[in-house]
């Protein structure tokens, strides 16, 4: 790593790292990206960048996630507005399926998630926790997962968990009826 003494260059490197990562970055990653080799300098620069972002942009934000990582993201209230312009989904399909399963079955034990979604669920859970879409509690030796208020806000869900489950169930039922209707029609012909 080349040590950077110019604070403008270090700031630009941090901004570039946060913008291009498309995922939360640990402070160690940001220190490496900045080239300062200093935690204190990097945190000072990050604080300055966060303040500038807050005052200069209306739809973007840099936030600190519960695990201490940083992410540049679209504010949740603008996600539905730009969905049609986004070039890639916010979450990979497998992770999104895990999230919807948690939302529908919550509270749900990690054992049940692994049995249903497979061992790849561990990486999904890590990503969903980093994004603060799920939370977990230890009950004995088990982890129990539920969705968070940020999840509900980001996906535009109002109401309680039971309302969410009803909405998910009605979407599943509609999707299933669309998939079975053509096959029933083909059997009749």
Description of the structure:
The chain is α+β, with helices and mostly antiparallel strands. The protein has two domains: 7-75, Orthogonal Bundle (Arc Repressor Mutant, subunit A); 93-168, Winged helix-like DNA-binding domain superfamily/Winged helix DNA-binding domain (Arc Repressor Mutant, subunit A, Orthogonal Bundle). The protein is built from nine helices and five strands; from the N terminus they run αααββααβααββαα. The chain has helices spanning 7-21, 27-34, 39-56, 79-82, 93-105, 110-117, 121-130, 149-154, 161-188; strands at residues 60-64, 70-74, 108-109, 134-139, 142-147. The strands form two sheets. A three-stranded antiparallel β-sheet has the order 3-5-4. It has a two-stranded antiparallel sheet with strand order 1-2. Strand 4 (134-139) and strand 5 (142-147) form a beta hairpin. Helix 5 (93-105) packs across helix 7 (121-130) and helix 5 packs across helix 9. The longest helix has 28 residues, at 161-188. It is globular and about 55 Å long. It starts with 6 loop residues before the first helix and ends with a helix. Residues 180-189 have low confidence and may be disordered.
């Amino acid at each position: 790593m080349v040590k950077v003494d110019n604070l403008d260059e270090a700031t630009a490197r941090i901004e570039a790292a946060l913008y291009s990562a498309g995922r939360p970055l640990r402070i160690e990653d940001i220190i490496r990206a900045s080239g300062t080799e200093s935690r204190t300098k990097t945190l000072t620069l990050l604080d300055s960048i966060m303040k500038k972002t807050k005052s200069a942009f209306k739809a973007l934000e840099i936030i600190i996630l519960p695990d201490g990582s940083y992410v540049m993201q679209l504010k949740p209230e603008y996600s539905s507005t730009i969905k049609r312009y986004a070039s890639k989904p916010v979450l990979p399909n497998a992770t999104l399926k895990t999230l919807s399963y948690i939302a529908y079955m919550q509270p749900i034990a990690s054992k049940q998630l692994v049995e249903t979604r497979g061992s790849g669920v561990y990486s999904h859970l890590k990503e969903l926790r980093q994004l603060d879409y799920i939370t977990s509690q230890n009950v004995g030796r088990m982890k129990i997962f539920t969705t968070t208020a940020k999840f509900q806000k980001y996906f535009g869900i109002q109401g309680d968990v039971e309302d969410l489950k009803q909405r998910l169930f009605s979407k599943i039922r509609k999707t299933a009826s669309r998939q079975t209707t053509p096959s029933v029609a083909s059997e009749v012909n």
